[in-house]
Amino acid sequence: MGGAMATLLAADLYLHDKNVYNSSLVRVFTYGSPKVFAKNTATDWSTKLRVYRWAYDDSKGMGDHVPQMPSSSFEHVGKTYKIYRKFRFLKSSQYSFRSQSDQWNPSPRYKVGRHKASVYTEALNKGCK
């Protein structure tokens, strides 16, 4: 819930005083955040907030499942980045990251994915330099 709370705090600050708490001053970085805004307001909030959303995926189908939540009546805001781990036989894993479409989500094969902070920390430390 940390990513969702950070995004909602930025929106609340904007509503409090948009001349001070605008996208020039406030930037939000989330890792594995769920969808926060209803579809009919998400586009509007994307123009008001500067959000950078990171989501983990890997070659074993164990990506983070949380960014898919909640239902399809919600959307993400901001710029999306995919952190990808490619497992290699008898070699260390290879990490990469790249920009994605704003509504991209990992597609884990299993409902229990990799949502721990340590997964994101390891991926960023090893592959996103």
Report on this model:
The protein is of the alpha/beta class and 129 residues long. The chain contains three helices and six strands. The protein is elongated. The model has no long low-confidence stretch (mean pLDDT 86).
Describe the main β-sheet briefly.
Answer: 4 strands, mixed
Order of H and E elements: HEEHEEEEH
Number of strand elements: 6
Shape: elongated
Q: State the distance separating the first and last CA atoms.
A: 27 Å
Give the low-confidence spans.
none
Percent helix, as a range, is: 25-40%
Quickly list its features.
4-stranded mixed sheet; 129 residues; elongated; alpha/beta
Question: Mind sketching the topology for me?
Answer:
Blueprint: H1 2-16, E1 27-31, E2 37-38, H2 39-48, E3 50-58, E4 74-75, E5 79-86, E6 94-100, H3 117-127
Parallel strand pairs: 1-3, 3-5
Antiparallel strand pairs: 2-4, 5-6
What's this model, at a glance?
It contains 3 helices and 6 strands. The chain is 28% helix and 26% strand.
